[in-house]
Amino acid sequence: MGRVSDALERHKKEKVIKIKGLPIDRPEQLVAKRPESPLVPGLATQNGVSPEIVVLSAPESIDAENFKVLRAKILFPTNGKKPRIIMITSAFPGEGKTFVAANLAASIAIGINEHVLLIDCDLRRPALHSILGYSNTHGLSEYLTEKKRLSDLLIRTRIKKLSLLTAGSPGPNPSELLSSTMMKDFLAEAKERYQDRYIIIDAAPSHITAEASVLSNHVDGIIFVVMAQKTPKEPIQRNIQTLGKEKILGIVFNGYSKNYRAYHKHYKKYYRL
Ligand SMILES: Nc1ncnc2c1ncn2[C@@H]1O[C@H](COP(=O)(O)OP(=O)(O)O)[C@@H](O)[C@H]1O
Ligand SMILES: [Mg+2]
Predict the structure, then answer these.
(1) Among candidate residues 247, 201, 199, the one with its CA nearest the CA of residue 220
(2) Domain count, the chain
(3) 62-75 and 97-109 helices, crossing angle to 10°
(4) 1 inside domain
């Protein structure tokens, strides 16, 4: 990935987020589907989607272009085998996993045919809900622990063809939950039932939690995010080895480093093991 998009910075400075051409799929009806999850005020723009979804807020930016390239690599793989379940991870927090997961998902969903299910599997520090403008009252955790019906948990977002399963309330054993047979069956069934759907998983950091490694068994491919010039080499190599080199679809070099130090300093608070 190139450096932080100038376009996004411009958008931030302009204060008003203009999202041109955002496909809005009957928003009232979609919000009503989960009335207990109103938009989180302040987190979302007037369209309900954060400006961090640069493929929509800054479609002319370098980052948006880079996501198009990544999307093409996934939709038209050179070996002809389309990876349908894709996990995004990185060694440490604050390296852009959620940013990449959300933008890649949006980038695929705004294409002509493909549907996307975006799943927040960072149960310790969920973030996809806020970037897409929803609260996180229930989601994957409730599906796995309370056997809630998936149809009651899935959110059809304001981006057409993009569904979201939020992480839900934090529980004590995220790695056990994600390594459960139920999780495995859920992913296998989702892949089988929705043939036209890509499943994108936003995972926890691979160097300090077990979740990414647990999930790697259930996914077709992994995108590993690296903070350019920042993430130390050794953990990158070790993590890629543990996750399974053959599953790595690519490495995204994220040039954005504004929050890197701060996130590092505080990560223990969120990722207590
Ligand atoms: N390339 C980028 N351009 C703009 N903002 C970015 C970029 N990468 C990360 N960010 C921002 O940095 C912060 C941390 O990124 P995030 O995706 O939440 O990291 P992680 O999920 O790895 O913890 C977020 O506010 C995110 O929007
Ligand atoms: Mg995240």
Answers:
(1) 247
(2) 1
(3) 70
(4) no
pLDDT digits (tens, 9 = 90+) for 43-97: 445 466 788 999 998 999 989 999 999 999 999 998 889 999 999 999 999 999 9
* Torsion angle in degrees (nearest 10) through CA of 78, 104, 109, 76: 0
| Below-50 pLDDT ranges, the chain | 1-5, 7, 11-44, 46, 262-263, 273
Prediction pTM value? 0.84
Domain that holds residue 256: 6-270
Question: Hey, which of 9, 11, 52, 63 would you mutate to test ligand 1's pocket, going by the most ligand atoms within 8 Å of its Cβ?
Answer: 52
Return d(Cα 193, Cα 212) in angstroms, integer. 24
Retrieve residue 160's tokens: 């057409």
DSSP output for 160-227: TTEEEE---S--S-HHHHHTSHHHHHHHHHHHHH-TTEEEEEE---TTT-SHHHHHHTT-SEEEEEEE
Give ligand 1 pocket residues (Cβ under 6 A).
Answer: 1, 4-5, 8, 52, 63, 90, 93-99, 127, 254, 256, 259
Between the CA of 120 and the centroid of ligand 2 the distance, in Å, is 8
Within a domain: residue 111? yes
What are residue 90's DSSP bridge partners? 225
Beta strands (DSSP E) in the chain are 85-90, 115-120, 155-156, 162-165, 197-202, 221-227, 248-254
